[in-house]
Amino acid sequence: MTPEAWTLEQIHDHIATSLPLASLFNITVLEASEVRGRVRLGHGEHVTRSGGGIAGPVQFALADVAIYALILAARRDPAAVTVDLTINFLRPAMTLPLLATASPLRAGRRLFTAEVRITEETTTRLVAHATGTYALSA
Amino acid sequence: MTPEAWTLEQIHDHIATSLPLASLFNITVLEASEVRGRVRLGHGEHVTRSGGGIAGPVQFALADVAIYALILAARRDPAAVTVDLTINFLRPAMTLPLLATASPLRAGRRLFTAEVRITEETTTRLVAHATGTYALSA
Amino acid sequence: MTPEAWTLEQIHDHIATSLPLASLFNITVLEASEVRGRVRLGHGEHVTRSGGGIAGPVQFALADVAIYALILAARRDPAAVTVDLTINFLRPAMTLPLLATASPLRAGRRLFTAEVRITEETTTRLVAHATGTYALSA
Amino acid sequence: MTPEAWTLEQIHDHIATSLPLASLFNITVLEASEVRGRVRLGHGEHVTRSGGGIAGPVQFALADVAIYALILAARRDPAAVTVDLTINFLRPAMTLPLLATASPLRAGRRLFTAEVRITEETTTRLVAHATGTYALSA
Fold first, then answer.
1. Shortest CA distance to C122 belongs to which of C95, C102, C100?
2. ipTM of this complex prediction, to 2 decimal places
3. Domain tally for chain B?
4. CATH classification at residue D32
């Protein structure tokens, strides 16, 4: 018996509860399905560095949450953990909100790998690209 | 004429001012020289996820700051920016403080690459390994 | 004055001459433009491991050549060198030919970053994904 | 009952048989234990690119074989497969032989992660650094 799919609201609530950073940075889940996880970094404190750019660790958090939302929708596995993540910072991210969209590359029995594109919502410019692998608990 | 070396205090103050996340997460710079950047993640709010482990983005921030401190000491280049970073989460990081030690792999004219080992201070267990490349501004 | 664009034939000949591995593995350049580099791994010796799968280093070579062809078309910079490359082997690659398609993520003044998707030509299955950064010589 | 340890000769023979590229490139296994895999790229055809440097895919192969030798010694698991590998090319590798030394970062039940340093044997200069994760079959 496959466990029942999580609703977007359940996914959002689980992330807000289990990852305090998501709330701290004002990250919200916009969409989560078997083929896509989509999250937004809204306006907020803490996320910029001097000069006004959005800090790298915040973009990392955004990519990580986008993949986690995708895994929750595709596998209902809240105990999945990040094995490794590679992030390329392509150009300065200067304008909030940012959008991160995760797409599956491998949906295996034990490992889940996804790529993430991070864009500025208003300009649609690509600011970062990430690839991450997660270990599934099942 | 080579610009004068930054003192540890100057490096610490520059990071505290320019990277609000460093203060938010309670990251301090312990040591910075041409061959080593060493930073500590102390006790604090915001850094754990449910279950008690230290969140991945916080470890990413720690690795990023360790390399930045190394670059400030070795190159006095506050405008250096992260090009890409790969992080492997090797085992759950359960106990604060964490220590991150960055060592140079390439100290080129335009690119600086370093590796970082993150350990739990009390157990000395290795919890994460990162490799990052930065573009120098000079 | 921008140097004149290289033709596909010039790109193919340059790669065959400067990268003996490309000929050894039977890698040919199918397409090269500012937005796409596309190469094929044809039938040949040396490329499989026991069990019949196409060896990881051969897939790495294919990704590397796809990005190099893209850079030759987009930047006419034969002296570009690989800074780093991350490759994810998503599932066994069992059937030749393989196709690798490189797309630009960053086309900067000093750095060029691209992603590559490697598929089996006949099944169209995605077998590997890579992200690579190159230092431009100009 | 733990399977018996493989001897260096068994590891060398297994690699020579199962990875035709290792022989093609003249890669030999110098040492393999639970804490270290050490391999050498000797003189040979096919491994240079124009200009005389050792080609990136050959260095990738060297890193991959070093980790595989380490896993054979530490886990006796010939069916281990590469999940992902990140390689940084730090400076041109101009002089053969090259040495690659792999050290374990994670020796888990399902995943094995190692880092590799590639040096020129005669100059001892570090030319590349890699980090790779392998899925164990057991």
1. C95
2. 0.95
3. 1
4. 3.10.129.10
